[in-house]
Amino acid sequence: MDIKKYENALEAILFASGESVELAKLAYCLGLDEKTVRLLLTNMMDRYEFENRGIKIIRINNSYQMCTSDEYFEFVGRLIKAPTRKALSPVLLETLAIIAYKQPVSRAMIEEIRGVDASHAVNKLLEFNLICEAGRLDAPGKPIVFATSDEFLKHFGLSSLEELPKLPEVSPEDLDEGFYK
Fold this sequence. Notes:
The protein is of the alpha+beta class. It has helices spanning 3-17, 23-30, 34-50, 73-80, 90-102, 107-114, 119-127, 150-155, 172-176, and strands spanning 21-22, 55-60, 63-68, 105-106, 131-136, 144-148.
């Protein structure tokens, strides 16, 4: 099989999947090593962008997904009458930020940082699929810990958590001088 046929096969797999597919699974399907498949996908991504195509391939952690190019989303939205994404309330954003930067984190840890009950916010973020259960703490009661999901990365246009903005360094003196006031 030549390069074009592998690219066509990747395109067909990603299109048919409708969701992100792990690089290892793509490599298995093509009978190629992951490095070669990553190179094929990178070339396809670059070509789609250069040609200003209506679709694009995005990387989410170590998975790839075919989706509508941002420029053409409004046209697709008209077809499927997709509602616009609801804005997240300040409470949800604050809770989501805590989870993103402290993950994996339990509900009790979130409540300790926020100083208020986090049940509603955590449940809403789970409902929106922006966070997911990431296991249990080895502590009394074995509380569930939460982490951000791949949907979180997609929602905020990130390829990985390493792209999160860095938090400012805060010293004890900053706190005494009202850094956060």
